[in-house]
Amino acid sequence: MKENKYDDPQFFEQYSKMSRSVQGLEGAGEWHELKKLLPDFTGKTVLDLGCGFGWHCRYAAEQGAAQVTGVDLSEKMLKRAKEMTRSPNIQYIRNSIEDFPYPENAFDVVISSLAFHYVENYGKVCRRVYNSLKDGGYFVFSVEHPVFTAQGKQDWYYGPDGKPLHWPVDNYFTEGCRNAVFLGNKVKKYHWTLTTYLNVLTEAGFSLCHVTEPQPDPSMLDLPGMRDELRRPMMLIIKARKTSR
Amino acid sequence: MKENKYDDPQFFEQYSKMSRSVQGLEGAGEWHELKKLLPDFTGKTVLDLGCGFGWHCRYAAEQGAAQVTGVDLSEKMLKRAKEMTRSPNIQYIRNSIEDFPYPENAFDVVISSLAFHYVENYGKVCRRVYNSLKDGGYFVFSVEHPVFTAQGKQDWYYGPDGKPLHWPVDNYFTEGCRNAVFLGNKVKKYHWTLTTYLNVLTEAGFSLCHVTEPQPDPSMLDLPGMRDELRRPMMLIIKARKTSR
């Protein structure tokens, strides 16, 4: 069984208080960058892997998607997603990203927001996404940046004054499991190098369209701690396209 | 005038002692990865930006290139390059990467090894390379990795025992000049984010073919200090292609 931290009541409660959980897309620091990379959804069939509260599913439907499928392993997340969803074009399916039975040539767009760093076999998922996309279809996803996941603690290295001195990078080329701390809880995550994130895609048959390391929106820079977000990349957004071989 | 550190006698002497200077391509830790990304050179017209001692120029000629142009700002580097070159298919031109008068639709392949982190206007160079490539031509280059250049000191953060504790990353999104130390000398380098390295290419019209963070060849891992090279990425190799718009 895959780790299902989001059904842990304490973790779920803490996650529910994050600004991205309360305010949705506008509360997510990377949304202004992710949004730019999303294709036109009009009339499209969309799959959202690790859909959580369904914010991206509802956005796709609002933008004209004909059919949206949100997949998540957490019952609690999906319950909340359903409560917030009115559109008949959205269906939620409880499954892990690895075990979802990807139908062939079924989707125009596959999206995933900050979920793949929980997936043990990123390569297998990419190959299944490729098969599940129609020709010309787009795959757009965000993950925690390899600089952020490499060392494992996911925290700054602090100086004697208690302030962040710099961001520590270590074990970069040692890929695989990390015992990270997220919202005060131990969470299993997976670190992959940038090379792996990109080359698995090209080897699966995708063309690379765009790679972005989102920075905070300039309007947010005066919020407490936000300038530290300019000191190291935290996320990586990748846009790829299924093109005929 | 561009900084021309390689004509500084002391710096030149130290650079000349590096294994990549003495042994050539086989003495360069990233060569086994760069080599894989180079296209077929048979009958091709090739430009090498920042050619140094001309190792890559001679390799291209040996692989069948019809004509190879090596560009470098350093007179001392080019003098040595010419001394080591027998092939009539190779010409060396003394100029900076920025000021070289890129002829239009002239080259099948443009390569550059570890030179662009000295270039102040990376974007301008990429756009000129695009115009100077024939349609379908390849642009393959290596640079110091943004993780390596971000903080500026280009050194480990050491623990109390004097051993490398981790690699410090800071000021990642603050692009531009860094006063780095290389071979004990102060050298001006430029830091660009991964986002910039890739998006400047796609905006210029290139398709991204491959991105690799080279690791040491497994056969080299028992050399002193080599295992530390697995702790952080030091280089980035990018392969892009000029495709019709």
Number of helices of chain A: 8
- Give the termini separation of chain A: 35 Å
Largest sheet data of chain A: 7 strands, mixed
Quaternary state of the chains: homodimer
- Strand-residue proportion of chain A: 25-35%
Number of strands of chain A: 11
- Low-pLDDT runs of chain A: none
**Helix-strand topology string of chain A:** HHHEHEHEEHEHEEEEHEE
- What average pLDDT do the residues of chain A reach? 92
Strand order of the largest sheet of chain A: 3-2-1-4-5-11-10
Protein chains sharing the most extensive interface: A-B, 32 and 32 residues
Q: Gyration radius of chain A, to the nearest Å? A: 18 Å
State the helicity of chain A in percent bands: 25-40%
Secondary structural class of chain A:
alpha/beta
Shape of chain A: globular
Give a nutshell description of this structure.
2 copies of one chain form a homodimer. Chain A has 245 residues and is an alpha/beta fold. Helix content of chain A is 26%, strand content 29%.
